[in-house]
Design brief:
By secondary structure, the protein is α/β, with parallel strands linked by helices. Helices cover 39% and strands 16% of the residues. The protein has an eight-stranded mixed β-sheet, sandwiched between helices. Helix 1 crosses helix 2, helix 3 packs antiparallel against helix 4 and helix 4 packs across helix 5.
Length: 299
């Protein structure tokens, strides 16, 4: 994992895929598995150049002594752009899952000229019900981690993943392994890292109507990939996104929850490829309505 110095911080990152790839993809998060999404975007048939950046405050990246006054998501968004500057990357595709997608929403608002496209995975801004500075789930995980309450941490992670049918026995076994690993990571995380609460995107929007108004300001091609069983980011939030972000697209998976990036990375990669092909004009064009088509019952 190489180091990239930006302004007042060191950011550690990994890169995947060929240098002459058709697309350059950036993603920033608390950590990456190296084998799931978005790393899979570097493999055929997408074959993109992918940079995964460890967010300030985590891993070997710089650990601030105090939370940034502008907020974590704003700071991380600006860090991604500073990383791109340092690497000589003008425009790029940004993608992320959950809190990593939250960073992308801020790039779309603060630096829209730098984005060719934005792909949000289980990361549309949360519904507004009361407190907006953080999600209830994140607050509970922080509390339980500091209290050493492994059972409570696991309960929150199971809620995130969403429910499974009784006959999904093999999937339940795989889900249990995933949650076991996530619990272990949470309970052994550095104390400073454990206290970081990135909060909800756009906490100044106190109601769903106010949030919709923020989303209407975004002018970046945006794809939202969401799970109908997600225990923290509701399907309604994805619908709010696609209703209000101009020229956006949403794909909702009935059988998925908040762990889509780990559980179905190949399916996500296919959706990303189709979306970017549409932007590049290489996908099938949408049929246009005509009176001739109307006569034969098609549009």
């Amino acid at each position: 994992m190489p180091l990239q110095k930006i302004d007042d911080a060191d950011l550690w990152y990994d890169e995947y895929g060929p240098d002459d790839a058709p697309e350059t993809v950036l993603s920033c998060a608390m950590g990456f598995s190296g084998t799931g999404y978005p790393e899979i975007l570097a493999e055929p048939p997408t074959g993109y150049k992918v940079h995964t950046i460890v967010a300030r405050g985590f891993g070997r990246s710089t650990h601030p002594q105090a939370p940034p006054p502008e907020g974590w998501l704003t700071r991380w968004a600006d860090d991604v752009v500073a990383f791109a500057d340092a690497k000589g990357i003008d425009r790029f595709v940004y993608t992320g899952a959950s809190h990593s997608a939250g960073i992308g929403w801020y790039i779309a608002v603060r630096h829209p000229d730098r984005l060719k496209a934005f792909v949000s995975v289980v990361g549309t801004p949360h519904d507004r019900f009361g407190v907006t500075d953080s999600s209830e789930g994140r607050r509970e995980v922080i509390r339980a981690r500091l209290a050493g309450d492994t059972t409570a941490v696991r309960a929150q992670l199971e809620k995130l993943g969403g429910w499974l049918h009784e006959d999904e026995t093999e999937r339940r076994r795989e889900r249990d392994k995933l949650i076991d690993a996530a619990v272990a990571t949470t309970m052994t995380r550095d104390e400073d890292e454990s206290r970081i609460n990135q909060g909800m995107p756009f906490p100044e929007a106190k109601t769903n109507d106010e949030l919709a108004a923020v989303l209407r300001t975004i002018r970046v091609p945006t794809l939202m990939l969401a799970g109908m069983r997600d225990g923290i980011v509701s399907p309604e939030s994805a619908l709010r996104g696609v209703v209000n972000v101009r020229d956006s697209k949403a794909v909702l998976f009935e059988s998925e929850g908040h762990f889509m990036a780990q559980e179905i990375p190949e399916r996500l990669a296919r959706e990303v490829r189709m979306f970017l092909d549409e932007i590049n004009g290489t996908a099938e064009p949408r049929p246009r309505f005509s009176r001739e088509n109307e006569k034969v019952g098609t549009i």
